[in-house]
Amino acid sequence: MIQNIDNLITQYRDELLDNVLPFWLDNSIDREEGGYFTCLDRKGEVFDTDKFIWLQGREVWLFSMLYNNVEQRPEWLETAIHGAEFLKKCHDGNYNFYFSTTRDGRPLVQPYNIFSNTFATMAFGQLAKATGSKEYEEIVLKTWESTLARRDNPKGIWNKLYPCTRNLKNFALPMILCNLVLEIQHLLDEETFKATTENFLHEVMDVFIRPELDGLVVENVLDDGTLCDCFEGRHLNPGHAIEAMWFIMDLGKRLGRPDLIEKAKDTALKMVRYGWDHRYGGIFYFMDLKGCPPQELEWDQKLWWVHIETLISMIKGYALTGDEQCLEWFERVHDYTWSNFKDPEYREWFGYLSRSGEVLLPLKGGKWKGCFHVPRGLYQVWQTLEDIKRSEDRE
Fold first, then answer.
1. Percentages helix, strand, coil for the chain, rounded to the nearest 5?
2. What is the pLDDT of residues 381-394, one digit of tens each?
3. How far apart are CA 146 and CA 165, in angstroms?
4. pTM (2 decimals)?
5. H or E element that contains 352
6. What is the maximum span of the chain, computed from C-alpha positions, in angstroms?
7. pLDDT tens, 292-349?
8. How far apart are CA 326 and CA 265, in angstroms?
9. To 5 degrees, how large is the angle CA 336–CA 338–CA 341?
10. Could you please report the per-residue DSSP string of 238-283?
11. Phi, psi (rounded to 5 degrees) for 359
């Protein structure tokens, strides 16, 4: 039982509604050229006007999702539509969305990054649900088709790797697709939903979770599913793996598969234990499977999204299985996250800390951090705590 559950519910709900959302509503909307500014300094001032399509899609999704699930506030829907009308012109004509554009929407970086597609699909999926727009539904289905067509070669003609020497599969795409298929299930028939889901689940749960590594999740395997002893093959991203496990828990709940929920919960616990920095606290960004020096120089930084996604996985693991270890880890990560990432003076949260917890960049938004992980995490934890309280009240 969570002793202070009412206080926690209030803490997560009020931080979302009274702090984080107002920051983005006040500072990110580009009322002249459309879309959103995401490069915002500590106080919310714009320091760069380029637009990154991941973050455009994520903000459309966030405000659409809140409109659908929390309250039908006109401001939230207007904000989502404002971003979507900009976003819908940011592709190559075949629904391959660019990575970035100028402020007015002219392409800067080619659509090499398939996650621009996945976040556009999420965005228009939630907005179609909110508006009933057939145009937005059509964009969802066309972008989904384009994404699946690129699945075996996500970067396509923009792939810089030499073919056939070392063909690797990456964890990120099947992980995101496990979440995306839930996001657009209202637009898929049940047979398609289940068949597609099983395919993605197999990749995540049977290919990238490695029994010979005691259930750790690797980021890359060779295309035949075997491990590779190279920088990429030894690369671990604890936050990615932990985030993926709450996607799997949600799918397990939707499919009535308690076995999936249990395995996802156990995997999340293994990854948070493995990734925890016992000297300074927090979770490492990247790790090397054999303890070799990682190639990423930022490997020991503490990032906002890693900790927020861990909070979601731990509280969902506790809610769905009752495992007290999840609650213990939730409390530990909660204390670290609120003590280090929340800005005590200005709205929104810091994103990038040193290993010892010092703020490295005081920005609140940039090329990678936008209106997504913090508000989504606050919402998910708030709602899960509400579910736990209702369950406890019934007992």
1. 55, 10, 35
2. 999 999 999 998 88
3. 27
4. 0.98
5. strand 352-353
6. 60
7. 999 999 999 999 999 999 999 999 999 999 999 999 999 999 999 999 999 999 999 9
8. 8
9. 90
10. HHHHHHHHHHHHHHHHHHT-HHHHHHHHHHHHHHHHHHB-TTT-SB
11. -70, 120
